[in-house]
Amino acid sequence: MSVAVTGQDVMEPCYFAAEQRLFGCWHPGRGRRAVVICMSLGHEYQRLHRAGRQLAVQLSRAGIDALRFDYSGSGDSVGDEFTLVQAQQDVCDAIMFAKNKGASVITVIGVRLGAAFAVSAAQTPGVDSLILWEPVLDGGACLEEWMSLQREYEKMMGYSSMTSPPECLGFTYTPELWKSIGAIQLDVLSACVKKQIQIIDGENKLSALVHSLRPQAASVQHVNELMPAIWRRESTDALVPFQTIRAITNWVVGLPA
Amino acid sequence: MTSAKIIEKAVLLGPTGGLVGIITEPPPDVVKRQEGILLLDAGTIHRVGPGRLYVRLARELAALGFTVTRFDYSGIGDSGQRSDHLPILEVAVREPQEVMDDLQQRCGLSHFILMGICSGAYSAFKTAGRDPRVVGAALINPQDFIGDPTWLHYVQAKRYFSNSLYRPGAWLNLITGRVDYRTLFTALSNRAWQFLRGRGHQAQQQAHGIATEMNHITSRAARVLLLVSERDKSIEFVDAMLNMTIRNLPATGPLASVLIPDADHLFTRRVDQLAVQQAISTWITTSFPPPLVTSDEVEDERETVTF
Questions:
Q1: Is the CB of A23 inside 8 Å of chain B's CB atoms?
Q2: Partners of residue B9 in chain A, C-beta under 8 Å
Q3: Is the ipTM of this complex over 0.90?
């Protein structure tokens, strides 16, 4: 596979995993530690996409391998149907891909709903650290927010209320998926035992979680400076949260080799 | 990646390999068409398209025998930035051409159909005007092709005059405060100011330039589809730029149009996304039927249209 070289940056887009079903972009660093980035879903992923790329670029520049990928049934990956169970398998496959590329230690980043998949992969051999970027702890609350945004949009356009199957800002969800997202109650505590943890908390709402993690985790960094919630902003705003990206990159670089 | 026999490949395109793209190839048991299709980014949304519309479109069109390429312009999605400081309006033409050069070498394609929403429509239109390899262009919700604030105000005012002045609901909105008074005031006052200073004439001249470009494209037998959402101001832009009424255009022919009822700019609702897929598939199959005769003969048989 060929690699893109832009200035000092190198990136390899590719398909990987069984039946080459997952699309990913591999940003090579120096090859010991790799970061696997688990993004959010639907409109949030669309809005966060460029930020994910910029994060991977910054990590790669700092010598850390980074892998971004699309879950099955999303982005450029195979299929049209997304399920939480399949996404968990996809994360395992992404970690395996990073290891096959030569990484021996893995950091998993979970962004918003992606935190659920990051947490599910925490016990995978080789994973020593987790970054939870504005994690969705309560799937039901997340769907409330999504429905509220959808209603706002429908009101603005003068459309009738949400159709079935559920839709949110351009993306359609099966009733089963909608239900399973609503049922998410993230158990960070058991996943974080003896792990290095960073919590990105731009709205400063996760202090209780951080407090509960401290006795269990190897270390916890709580980044609670005010940062833009770009998943709530239109893609056309093209915002990149450099402050968050810098905080993550610096923390990963500082992890024990 | 292979799914239901559709083959997708991750590629790096362009002379420096800086443009990240996905080539969706037809299944092996389908006759491969000579025309390649390029799906052009809608603004800053990366190559999967709004609501993943481009992915579904690419797979659907590949199943019809077309090789479909979705790529990110430099600085968008997964692609890095250019190092030559080319102005963005020039990039919008240069990069589709660079990708076509690449696909000619890589896939043996010599003719192309370009499609894009919003800025992608601008890119498709301008590239079609400059590059004879483009035999078709689907301009989806095209907006400002001119980039002059005078022009923008002209069209906005035209929208108010043509759309709202005679619609009782618009007056109700005005009375009940459900309008953006600032935009309304700016548009109408600018319209008045333009006419006082003769700028309306300037806007019309600019529109004439766009109509001439369109004429140039269709006169060389390329097919153009104007696909617009009923709720989008692209209707007014197209009407003003081409000095015509898009609603009166036929759904087939050298210059065709399709109106998606009730849809917004980015086809946010699933029902509207499906309508776009349907409209594009219909246009492609009627405008570019599988060749029964040589491609040269097909070229000769195509109609032309002038304004």
A1: yes
A2: 15
A3: yes
